[in-house]
Description:
The protein has helices spanning about 10-20, 35-40, 45-55, 75-95, 100-110, 115-125, 130-145, 145-155, 160-170, 175-190, 190-200; strands at about 30, 60-65, 70. The chain is mainly α. It has two domains: about 10-70, Winged helix-like DNA-binding domain superfamily/Winged helix DNA-binding domain (Arc Repressor Mutant, subunit A, Orthogonal Bundle), CATH 1.10.10; about 75-200, Four Helix Bundle (Hemerythrin (Met), subunit A). It has a three-stranded antiparallel β-sheet. It starts with 8 loop residues before the first helix and ends with a helix.
Amino acid sequence: MQTSEPRDPYGAALGALKRFAEAGRFVPGEPIVVTELAAEVGLSATPVREALACLAGQGLIERRRGRGYFYPSLSPAEIIDLFELQLAYLHAALTLYPRGLTPLRKAAVAVDPLDGVQALFDAIINQSTNAALVLAHQRVVDRLKAVLKAERIHEETDGATVRTMVEVIVDGRIPALLGLLESYHERRCSRTTILVIEAA
Protein backbone atom coordinates (compact mmCIF):
# COMPACT_ATOMS: atom_id res chain seq x y z
CA MET A 1 0.00 0.00 0.00
CA GLN A 2 1.40 3.37 -1.02
CA THR A 3 1.20 6.26 1.43
CA SER A 4 0.07 9.62 0.13
CA GLU A 5 2.01 12.81 0.71
CA PRO A 6 0.64 14.90 3.62
CA ARG A 7 -1.63 17.86 2.92
CA ASP A 8 1.14 20.21 4.00
CA PRO A 9 4.38 18.65 2.74
CA TYR A 10 6.36 21.81 3.51
CA GLY A 11 5.14 21.80 7.13
CA ALA A 12 5.88 18.09 7.41
CA ALA A 13 9.40 18.61 6.05
CA LEU A 14 10.03 21.57 8.34
CA GLY A 15 8.81 19.61 11.38
CA ALA A 16 10.94 16.59 10.48
CA LEU A 17 14.08 18.70 10.01
CA LYS A 18 13.56 20.46 13.35
CA ARG A 19 13.04 17.10 15.10
CA PHE A 20 16.21 15.73 13.48
CA ALA A 21 18.21 18.76 14.62
CA GLU A 22 16.83 18.56 18.17
CA ALA A 23 17.64 14.85 18.35
CA GLY A 24 21.25 15.46 17.31
CA ARG A 25 20.77 13.66 13.98
CA PHE A 26 23.10 16.09 12.18
CA VAL A 27 26.78 16.55 12.94
CA PRO A 28 28.15 20.13 12.79
CA GLY A 29 29.70 20.70 9.34
CA GLU A 30 27.84 17.72 7.83
CA PRO A 31 26.46 18.20 4.30
CA ILE A 32 22.71 17.68 4.02
CA VAL A 33 21.76 15.84 0.83
CA VAL A 34 18.25 16.90 -0.13
CA THR A 35 17.32 13.74 -2.05
CA GLU A 36 18.50 11.43 0.74
CA LEU A 37 16.69 13.46 3.38
CA ALA A 38 13.51 13.56 1.26
CA ALA A 39 13.59 9.77 0.91
CA GLU A 40 14.16 9.40 4.66
CA VAL A 41 11.12 11.49 5.56
CA GLY A 42 8.98 10.13 2.73
CA LEU A 43 8.51 13.39 0.86
CA SER A 44 9.52 14.79 -2.49
CA ALA A 45 12.66 16.92 -2.70
CA THR A 46 10.80 20.22 -3.23
CA PRO A 47 9.24 20.65 0.24
CA VAL A 48 12.49 19.46 1.87
CA ARG A 49 14.46 22.03 -0.14
CA GLU A 50 11.94 24.74 0.81
CA ALA A 51 12.20 23.78 4.49
CA LEU A 52 16.00 23.86 4.32
CA ALA A 53 15.84 27.32 2.71
CA CYS A 54 13.58 28.53 5.54
CA LEU A 55 15.91 27.14 8.21
CA ALA A 56 18.89 28.67 6.40
CA GLY A 57 17.13 32.03 6.61
CA GLN A 58 16.84 31.54 10.36
CA GLY A 59 20.53 30.61 10.63
CA LEU A 60 19.75 27.04 11.73
CA ILE A 61 21.08 25.50 8.51
CA GLU A 62 23.95 26.84 6.44
CA ARG A 63 23.56 27.31 2.69
CA ARG A 64 26.79 27.42 0.73
CA ARG A 65 26.37 28.80 -2.75
CA GLY A 66 26.97 26.11 -5.33
CA ARG A 67 27.63 23.46 -2.68
CA GLY A 68 24.25 22.93 -1.03
CA TYR A 69 23.13 22.80 2.59
CA PHE A 70 25.21 21.99 5.65
CA TYR A 71 24.49 21.65 9.32
CA PRO A 72 26.34 24.65 10.78
CA SER A 73 29.38 24.34 12.96
CA LEU A 74 29.93 27.26 15.31
CA SER A 75 33.31 28.80 16.03
CA PRO A 76 34.18 29.84 19.60
CA ALA A 77 33.59 33.50 18.61
CA GLU A 78 30.13 32.68 17.22
CA ILE A 79 29.24 30.75 20.38
CA ILE A 80 30.27 33.70 22.54
CA ASP A 81 28.17 36.02 20.35
CA LEU A 82 25.14 33.77 20.85
CA PHE A 83 25.79 33.49 24.61
CA GLU A 84 25.93 37.31 24.76
CA LEU A 85 22.69 37.57 22.82
CA GLN A 86 21.05 35.16 25.27
CA LEU A 87 22.35 37.23 28.18
CA ALA A 88 20.86 40.37 26.60
CA TYR A 89 17.49 38.61 26.19
CA LEU A 90 17.57 37.50 29.83
CA HIS A 91 18.42 41.05 30.89
CA ALA A 92 15.44 42.33 28.89
CA ALA A 93 13.08 39.75 30.38
CA LEU A 94 14.27 40.58 33.91
CA THR A 95 14.19 44.35 33.68
CA LEU A 96 11.04 44.82 31.60
CA TYR A 97 8.46 42.99 33.66
CA PRO A 98 5.14 44.82 33.21
CA ARG A 99 3.29 41.93 34.86
CA GLY A 100 5.24 42.26 38.11
CA LEU A 101 7.51 39.79 39.89
CA THR A 102 4.86 37.20 40.75
CA PRO A 103 4.88 35.47 37.32
CA LEU A 104 8.69 35.45 37.36
CA ARG A 105 8.74 33.87 40.82
CA LYS A 106 6.19 31.23 39.78
CA ALA A 107 8.13 30.39 36.63
CA ALA A 108 11.42 30.11 38.54
CA VAL A 109 10.15 27.86 41.35
CA ALA A 110 8.54 25.55 38.77
CA VAL A 111 11.99 24.73 37.32
CA ASP A 112 13.62 21.53 38.55
CA PRO A 113 17.22 22.56 39.45
CA LEU A 114 18.46 19.25 38.07
CA ASP A 115 17.20 20.25 34.61
CA GLY A 116 20.05 22.75 34.41
CA VAL A 117 20.58 26.45 33.92
CA GLN A 118 19.12 26.48 30.41
CA ALA A 119 15.75 25.32 31.79
CA LEU A 120 15.74 28.33 34.12
CA PHE A 121 16.75 30.66 31.28
CA ASP A 122 13.88 29.32 29.16
CA ALA A 123 11.44 29.87 32.04
CA ILE A 124 12.63 33.45 32.60
CA ILE A 125 12.22 34.32 28.92
CA ASN A 126 8.88 32.52 28.48
CA GLN A 127 7.26 34.16 31.51
CA SER A 128 7.86 37.57 29.92
CA THR A 129 5.03 36.77 27.46
CA ASN A 130 6.81 39.00 24.95
CA ALA A 131 6.27 36.98 21.77
CA ALA A 132 9.14 38.62 19.86
CA LEU A 133 11.54 38.03 22.75
CA VAL A 134 10.44 34.41 23.16
CA LEU A 135 10.85 33.73 19.43
CA ALA A 136 14.25 35.43 19.22
CA HIS A 137 15.48 33.49 22.26
CA GLN A 138 14.23 30.20 20.82
CA ARG A 139 16.21 30.85 17.64
CA VAL A 140 19.37 31.38 19.69
CA VAL A 141 18.69 28.19 21.65
CA ASP A 142 18.10 26.28 18.40
CA ARG A 143 21.43 27.48 17.00
CA LEU A 144 23.19 26.51 20.24
CA LYS A 145 21.48 23.09 20.56
CA ALA A 146 24.64 20.96 20.23
CA VAL A 147 26.67 23.40 22.36
CA LEU A 148 24.06 23.44 25.14
CA LYS A 149 24.03 19.65 25.14
CA ALA A 150 27.83 19.63 25.56
CA GLU A 151 27.59 22.37 28.20
CA ARG A 152 25.35 20.19 30.38
CA ILE A 153 28.34 17.87 30.92
CA HIS A 154 30.19 20.72 32.65
CA GLU A 155 27.32 21.80 34.91
CA GLU A 156 27.29 20.64 38.51
CA THR A 157 25.01 17.66 39.01
CA ASP A 158 23.29 18.94 42.16
CA GLY A 159 21.67 22.00 40.54
CA ALA A 160 23.37 24.42 42.95
CA THR A 161 23.62 27.27 40.41
CA VAL A 162 19.93 27.04 39.54
CA ARG A 163 18.93 26.86 43.21
CA THR A 164 20.93 30.00 44.00
CA MET A 165 19.41 31.89 41.07
CA VAL A 166 15.88 30.78 42.01
CA GLU A 167 16.40 31.91 45.64
CA VAL A 168 17.48 35.34 44.42
CA ILE A 169 14.41 35.57 42.15
CA VAL A 170 12.06 34.54 44.98
CA ASP A 171 13.64 37.26 47.16
CA GLY A 172 12.99 39.76 44.35
CA ARG A 173 16.67 40.73 44.12
CA ILE A 174 16.84 41.23 40.35
CA PRO A 175 20.09 43.29 40.38
CA ALA A 176 21.77 40.44 42.30
CA LEU A 177 20.43 37.94 39.75
CA LEU A 178 21.84 40.02 36.90
CA GLY A 179 25.22 39.83 38.65
CA LEU A 180 24.93 36.04 38.94
CA LEU A 181 24.04 35.83 35.25
CA GLU A 182 27.11 37.91 34.34
CA SER A 183 29.34 35.59 36.38
CA TYR A 184 27.79 32.51 34.79
CA HIS A 185 28.22 34.09 31.36
CA GLU A 186 31.94 34.66 31.97
CA ARG A 187 32.41 31.04 33.09
CA ARG A 188 30.60 29.60 30.09
CA CYS A 189 32.48 31.86 27.66
CA SER A 190 35.77 30.61 29.08
CA ARG A 191 34.76 27.05 28.07
CA THR A 192 33.81 27.75 24.44
CA THR A 193 36.85 26.06 22.90
CA ILE A 194 36.07 22.86 24.81
CA LEU A 195 32.38 23.12 23.90
CA VAL A 196 33.20 23.40 20.19
CA ILE A 197 35.16 20.14 20.34
CA GLU A 198 32.50 18.32 22.37
CA ALA A 199 29.60 19.59 20.24
CA ALA A 200 31.20 18.24 17.05
